[in-house]
Sequence to fold (288 residues):
Amino acid sequence: MQAEGTDRIGGPPPRRRPLLFAVIALGVLAGLGWAVRSLLVSTDTRLPPVAVQTIGGQISAPATPAAAAPSAATSTRVQPPPVDMGAPAIEAPPLPTLEASDPEVRASLSDVLPATAQPALVPTELLRRIAVLAESFGRGKLLRDRLPIPSPTGKMQVIEREDRIFLAPGNFSRYDVLTDTVAALDANALAGWFNRYEPLLQQAWGELGTDGGTVRGALIGGLELILAAPDLEGEIELVQPAVFYKYADPALESLPDAQKLLIRAGPGNRAVLKDRARRLRDALARTP
Fold:
């Protein structure tokens, strides 16, 4: 028999319960999604604000939430300045050969030596002459014929008293030109000049047939001899066995030529010469 519509009252209607569960599940999922999205937006400050396209075609950014605002420490942080790497170092031009070095060496020395020493630039083979001068200077000898330097002016002045001969104080001024020339030298500039031409000077040094050593070592050794010259006080007695005067004290007469020159130059000039020798020695010793 066919059932009437009233026969379904009191029993579960077919397919109506599963549909109700689906609607409830979708509602729960939507609520969870909204909660998760709200949590992410309110706590994750790493996400940049999303631009919104308006109807008029203008792009606007939503206001930054209060929780995402930068802190005071972040907003006042000073960015470090860019590192200045500086200009690239300029390489020195290549050295000439020893045989062809005179023009460049003469020009470079003219910028280093004072005017009173410019006559020393006239000869040829300057670096070879300087190497010879350095070799003799290291032993306390002065070779004026190899590289002319200012000579004492006038004749040697002495005082004769009771058949004895003494070095006259007026003799000291004869060495003023030499002292002024040395005092005008720039020790650092001269050391810089030496550093550039040291390879060629060492080559010329090797041609001398010396028993080892270096041209730098010879120069420093000669400067040390200058600094070791005795500082004498009082009268200095001389003798004249022949044409030239000699020191009456054998200990003084046996000193190297460079040290005896400083004695004849007098206390004032000697102090200046020693000061410049010390500066040049220190400048040469600072560089390898």
User: Anything to note?
Assistant: Residues 1-62, 64-75 have pLDDT under 50 and may be disordered. The beta strands are 52-53, 59-60, 158-161, 164-167, 237-239, 246-247. Residues 39 and 237 are 106 Å apart (CA to CA). The first strand starts at residue 52 and ends at 53.
